[in-house]
Records
---
Amino acid sequence: MKTFCHLSRFAWGRFFYAAMMVLVLLGPATSTLNAQFKFRQPPNRQDPSALGKRDQAFVWNQFVGNRNLGPFTLAGSLVYRPASEPSRSYQFTLKADWNQQRQSSSLELVHPDGTVTETGVVISGSKAYRALPDGSLQPLAPERLVEPIVAGLPFTWNDLLMPYLTWQDVEYEGPDRYLGRPAHRYALSNPDPEGFPARVVVTLDEDYAALLRGSLYDADGEVVKRIRVGGFRQYGDEWMFSSLYWEDRASRSSVRLSVDSFRYGL
């Protein structure tokens, strides 16, 4: 598989979401991406043409470059829907500073019974650390990122931070269409042959390099978990996704992240 670039840590770019919302609400707008790619307006339901090698790298690099938010605060709710139990809702506040070299994330969760959990992690390069209350950092094994952040809620730092987007083995898979938008699929392979997920396929919007969905595969090639964007919304002067969904196929459960407020700065 071909490596297109050195991937930075996962985040969402402000231009990316602003442009996406202009597109959704108002129609096509001028940007470096739609200057490069032809805008296809629904109801054209045909898949777009496959990208040439140069444009494959262009879309991926645009996606990577738009993911560094810097310092921001995001708040809302996490709703866990088990397959055979009542839903449970948690209020959350995420304070973070994400850039190409380092991701610092602090999460406060208010449980259904009113108790509060505060936890944080820092990812720097290939290393992860738990942020302790005194400000010090404790080394954290990468496999701990796939464990639930709190008991009773199957939501992990891996779900939130998506460190698999830093994998450097990236291959273009071809055109697609999602939510009426022309899009393209990229496959990422885990450098650890024993690691999970073994492979991830992400779908990016053609015109704005927007992450629309992702599928996580196990070593047998089965989809274990999916993530998808549910919508976008304006928060003050800024635009951000309004909801994200994580769907676990094995347990038939899901977690919905709904955003009530978003701003740049901590």
---
Amino acid sequence: MFENNIFGMVAPDELLDIGYDVTRPNDPADQVFDDTKTDNLVAHWETMAAEYQIPVMAQFHAFDVEAQKTLRMPIDSHNVEKGLIKVKIDQSERLRALINRGVTTENRLREKVLNDAFNLAEEVFTRTKVAKNEVLYAGQVTIKENGLNLTVDYGVPQANLQKTLDFGEGASAPLDEQILALTEEASSKGSPLTGIYTSSAIISKMRKDPSIQKAINGALMVGQLIRRADLENYLNDEFGIKRILINDLHYSLPLTMGSNGRPVVTDKRYYPQDKISFFAGDNFIGTGLWGDTPSVTAQRFTGAETSEVSPYVFVNQYCENDPDIVWTKAEGLFMPVLYNPNGLYVATAQNTPGA
């Protein structure tokens, strides 16, 4: 049942089916960034970036006057094709370990190979979710791993990324007034805010805030925890914030081997606990652009038989002869795109004590 009688190799068609389902229904980042597959990452990037710029007005002219020349918007695209994510596993080592534990039937071994392929694809998917969340809390994507050191800047104004929400008794203004000032600033610049993306810790702070408790339930109810539904209705009615997305999900950095011979998990949050992102837009505020990986491009160049529609994550296998190893590898070419850089505001929670 193994392909070409090579122990650990499975049919390429089975691997091709793995990388199509990129959306995680329970992942909040996928509710504001969808995913798009394209055969030209840069062209698609430039088209979308231009489409979502603030409209530019032409002018009336007399019939005998030369038309005024317009300018193209500068679009940062020089790093977009460097978003190659890949990971591999020594399939031969894995199968030898399974056999030593008593797993010997070919059906079971083949199932384990496919499970490894699925897990590798999930690791690639996870890196894309980390990138989407970084756009939401930092307005950029930084890639500092495996010899790369680059930053993809989406043009979010620095002032938008340096906001604060002060929950302390010594705050210069009540929390509701701070939120009002931020939403009014965004509206005055043509990007009315419609949603927030944050942690449950920030939502809990809002539900406990005296100024919001007073605004919702009256002065006599200050100190009483606000119901989540009441907070959502208040933010919608008063500030036009219709969507509240919470991300408390965790992931691990690449596994390392501990001194006890077991993998070490390095736990991280996708989205910081002390941040809150305000965004404009009723649906997706960006998209994750997926291109063809070098492996897919190489197959087409050499004339190998390939599917007309390639998956988001391409999973394949290859052999080395010295030593004899079968590798299973997953790779994806990915970069998130933010539609409207002026429609993203990021605040950090702080707590100024009272006098």
---
Amino acid sequence: MEKMSTADYNKYKSAINAANDTKDKEALRQIQKQLIAKYTLDNEDVKKLLKYFKFTV
């Protein structure tokens, strides 16, 4: 399992916030797929980032 860098965490968080602001559920879906594929759901940072989603995808 790959460890997420602080820079990656901040990039993902920024992308999530932008997608939330524009209500872009497809972008959120893609972000979710990338996070899970690269880091898995067992990663604590992934769990934190997924909590920022304002919409169910």
---
Amino acid sequence: MVERELGEATVVYDDPHEEDPSELTVQNEHVVYFQDHWLVKTGEDDAGNDTVRRIPSEKVYYVEREVERFEDEAATLKDQFEERFQSVASDVEEKLPTG
């Protein structure tokens, strides 16, 4: 199986140990936004576990990603929104009185 190249992402953020903004560039699949934090895989430990840096969103100036990955991500978000909307609509419909 051929592995698809998803490109790179660059995160520019305030690091408390640095005077100037810091910059991390990693593979796109190693960056995710979750619970008001950017999670960036920075490596692996000796046991093969991922090492992840959690950067609070208020410390991030910007995240730059390659366009192809952005299009995939936007499509995924759209699909997730549609699934969630359908779920909520079904819940509301079940609770409405019939008659």
